[in-house]
Every structure is written in structure tokens, then in C-alpha cells.
Amino acid sequence: MKLLPILSVAFSLAVTGYAASALAAHHESGEHAVAAELNTADTVWASGGRAVVAEVEGEVTAIDLETREVVVRGPAGNFLTLSAREDGVDLSNIAVGDTIVADYIASIEAEVRAPTEEEAANPWVVVGEMGNTTDDAEMTAAGAARLVRAVCTIEAMDRNGNVVIKDARGRMHTVGGVELEKLDNVRLGDTVVVVFTEALVLSLKEV
């Protein structure tokens, strides 16, 4: 793969509307693969804005109590990985298959390029925290969110700049609003580096 141009922009979360974009992706959970259609719901949009609060309702497909991550399949089939603080959200009563509603906050900075050998050898690295400054007021209120550099594969994309990526742990992230010229040399299955803050849960309840 050719070296991709570096994309360094802030992403804010938007979970609005249900207008579909025809795009297929796959989420692997154990031996099962679930087809997903990319939709504007549960999509992270490239906007250059600050982190904002969003809501998602969907089915829990995976829970990792050690990392306190919850994977949710949204109404359009998109997969969203949420991070829950130990002192803020009780995950003890949540199980795979439950339908939940969660409010969350996050921002993403994406660096779209081929990984270095060092990055490929360390595909999931926590590089810092967001939410400790007045500029990150919303995230500060929720607590600090980890800033992560992840080596991901391109699972799906469309001509509207919507991209589905899967990190090295199998977690899926849907990114929207990426400038098309930044995707000129990107192909399905390509490996790229993405830097982002984890989606931090404000509240979570079973429906």
C-alpha cells in the first residue's frame, strides 16, 4: 500500500437521522460474523468541532469487564465501542443480548497513513488522556478519556466519505465525513493508523 497523506483533524460525534448509505461491513465475534450497513446513525463525523454528547440505543454484542468496554450494535447495524468509567457506570447487570440506551461523549483525531514497523508491532497504544483542560469542558465533566493510537484495517467505505475500521482487538469503529481525497489510495483491507479518544459513557441503562 502506498503511504497515505496524513489527516490530522478533530472529529466530533453525531448520532442523528436514519438516512442509509449503502455500505457493507463485518463484525467478528468469536466464530460469528454479522453483516452491517453503514448509516448516519452511530457515526463519528469529521467536523473539526469539540466533543459533544450523543445517544445510542442498540443491542450489546460484547462486554469486556477488564477494559470496561461495551460493544453496541446500533439500529442501522453499525457497531460502536463504548468505554465506561468504573466509578461512573455499573456494568454488572448488563449482558450480551441486552438492549441498552447510552449517552456518551468523545472526540477523534484521525491520522490516516500506513503504520511504521514499530506501530504495527504495537497496534494498540494509549498515548495520553483528553478532558483535563478547560478546552475539553464536556469531556472533563465525564472524566478523562484515553487517547489511543490504533493500527486498524479498512473494512468498508463509500463515496460519501464514510469508513468502517476494525482495530487489532476486533473492535469496530464507524467514521464519517472523511475528505475523499484523503481516501484516494485507500482500499478495503488496507492497514492504517488512527488516533482517537475512546467514546466515554455518561449514562447507560437497559431498555
Which features does this protein show?
globular, 207 residues, mainly beta, twelve-stranded mixed β-sheet, disordered N terminus, 2 helices, 52% strand, single chain
List the helices and strands and how they pair.
Blueprint: E1 9-14, E2 20-29, E3 32-39, E4 43-46, E5 52-64, E6 69-73, E7 79-83, E8 99-110, H1 117-121, E9 124-130, H2 137-142, E10 145-157, E11 163-167, E12 172-176, E13 191-197, E14 199-206
Parallel strand pairs: 4-12, 7-14
Antiparallel strand pairs: 1-4, 1-8, 2-3, 5-6, 5-8, 6-7, 8-13, 8-14, 9-10, 10-11, 10-13, 11-12
Description:
- With 207 residues, the protein is mainly beta.
- The chain has one domain (9-206).
- It is 5% helix and 52% strand.
- It is built from two helices and 14 strands.
- It has helices at 117-121, 137-142; strands at 9-14, 20-29, 32-39, 43-46, 52-64, 69-73, 79-83, 99-110, 124-130, 145-157, 163-167, 172-176, 191-197, 199-206.
- The strands form two sheets. Strands 1, 4, 5, 6, 7, 8, 9, 10, 11, 12, 13 and 14 form a twelve-stranded mixed β-sheet that branches. Strands 2-3 form a two-stranded antiparallel ribbon.
- A hairpin with a 5-residue loop joins strand 10 and strand 11.
- It is globular, with a radius of gyration of 16 Å.
Summarize the structure.
With 207 residues, the chain is mainly beta. 5% of the residues lie in helices and 52% in strands.
Query: Helical residue percent?
Result: under 10%
Number of strands: 14
Structural class: mainly beta
Number of domains as seen in the coordinates:
1
Fraction in beta strands: over 45%
String of helices and strands: EEEEEEEEHEHEEEEE
Count of helical stretches: 2
Euclidean distance between termini CA atoms: 44 Å
Question: What Rg is obtained from the alpha carbons, in whole angstroms?
Answer: 16 Å
Major β-sheet profile: 12 strands, mixed
Shape: globular
Low-confidence stretches: 1-50, 132-142
User: If you average the pLDDT, what whole number results?
Assistant: 70
